[in-house]
């Protein structure tokens, strides 16, 4: 009988590494399984249970509309995505600038607080037709302004909070090193505030798409997913309307994933302890 030496036994991976690999696989497999199950249940409700098309078109019918009207759908998605992107960029820049001033001077903080609170509760449904009427039927500015307005609030709140998170001991340490205000901001304040700012941008990315979509729904120039959804529903093309809805979901996911990726890449470059 041959003796088995430790060298002949295959080493087992560490439990922590095994758990991490399993968790990564589950993160990929679980959403796919849930999505396939949901689509199967959806198709079952329409074909077997007999849910009406005007209530819930089948996934097959929506896919058929995608294949038939694909160029028009993605053209409308490009319009909505452009409006949302412009609004997101403009709203983010304005929010960062105002948050920096508000964090630096208490007087500006006191003046900006009620304005931001008022902007947070502005009803987009009521504001969209007003802006579309003000800037004309051929201008996309009203839609972009609404997307910027929706993006402004979460970015401002998160950035302002992040700028106020710097610990006094860190500021005192920088003063003891005779660091200038710009050096203190670059090495202490900015790394501390950056995770909050990026979280606000990630939240605002989805709000920008939703706001642009709602603004397109309530008039303005033709084009955009909101207008297409309204037109398709009005002409009883329910499967086509759902195809535009799916395209809107795809646009929103692209914005969210892009900002989440940017957040992950940027946070990797923050100095250790900078976000503490």
Word description of this protein:
By secondary structure, the chain is mainly alpha-helical. The chain has one domain (74-268): Orthogonal Bundle (MetI-like fold). Helix content is 79%, strand content 0%. The chain is built from nine helices and no strands. The longest helix is centred in the N-terminal third of the chain and has 46 residues, at 59-104. Mean pLDDT is 79; it is low at 272-276.
Short description:
The chain has 276 residues and is mostly helical.
How many DSSP H or I helices?
A: 9
The domain tally reads: 1
CATH T-level topology: MetI-like fold
User: Into which percentage range does the β-strand content fall?
Assistant: under 5%
Q: Describe the sheet with the most strands.
A: none
**What are the secondary-structure elements, in order, as H or E?**
HHHHHHHHH
Q: If classified by CATH, what would the architecture be?
A: Orthogonal Bundle
The percent range for helix content is over 70%
Mean pLDDT level? 79
What topology does this entry show?
Layout: H1 15-49, H2 59-104, H3 106-120, H4 124-135, H5 141-163, H6 168-176, H7 181-217, H8 225-234, H9 238-268
Helix pairs in contact: 2-3, 2-5, 2-7, 2-9, 3-5, 4-5, 4-7, 5-7, 7-8, 7-9, 8-9
